Amino acid sequence: LGWKFYDADDYHPLENKKKMEEGIPLNDEDRIPWLCALHDILRREDTSRQDTILACSALKKMYRRVLIGGASAIESNHPEQPGEKPALKILFVHLDGPKDIIAARLKKRRGHFMPLELLQSQFDTLEPPSAPENFITVSLEKPLPEILLQIETAILRG
After folding, report:
1. Model pTM greater than 0.90?
2. Signal sequence: where (predicted)?
């Protein structure tokens, strides 16, 4: 697509990385500042009209709201008011698959701070996207070319 790519894991603060390396799951207090920083990156790219892909485990609905609206999304559930910066338009891609497939892929990763032991905590935290969120669900059980085609088709449809 020629879009700019960011891996959210690259933006975790050192404290979060250390916690995960020790097998301690992150909580909302750990994740919110990280998500706000990611929102700022997305906002900057949007302002410069740069299409962007962010790989991020935005596990909860609230986390996805923070990515769209920044810190203000935490304090309120109200729609944007006149004069507020407009929310970012984001298509969330929910990569869905059985834990054994994801575990097998995690085992192949080298040099990453999140150990396999934390996978269950991610499943426990997960709130799959639902209406009215802007999302698609893609099965990880499909071959990679099919996964990419499904995502690209959804992006191009807008």
Report:
1. no
2. none
Nearest-angstrom CA–CA distance, 28 and 35: 10
Residue 28 pLDDT greater than 90, yes or no = yes
CA–CA separation, 101 and 116 (whole Å): 12
CATH fold label, 4-157:
Rossmann fold (3.40.50)
C-alpha distance from residue 112 to each of 15, 71, 118, 155 (Å): 15, 28, 12, 29
Lowest mean pLDDT among 58-62, 80-84, 86-90, 102-106: 80-84
User: What single string gives the DSSP state of each residue in 55-101?
Assistant: E----SHHHHHHHHHTTHHHH--SPPPTTSPPPP---EEEEE--HHH
- 133: phi then psi, degrees, rounded to nearest 5: -60, 150
Q: Which pair of tokens denotes residue 6?
A: 């960011």
Alpha-carbon span 158 to 145, nearest angstrom = 20
**What pLDDT is recorded for position 75?**
73
Give the domain ranges of the chain. 4-157
In the chain, the amino acid numbered 133 is E
CA-based Rg of the chain, rounded to a whole angstrom?
Answer: 16
- Least confident window among 11-15, 95-99, 109-113, 146-150: 109-113
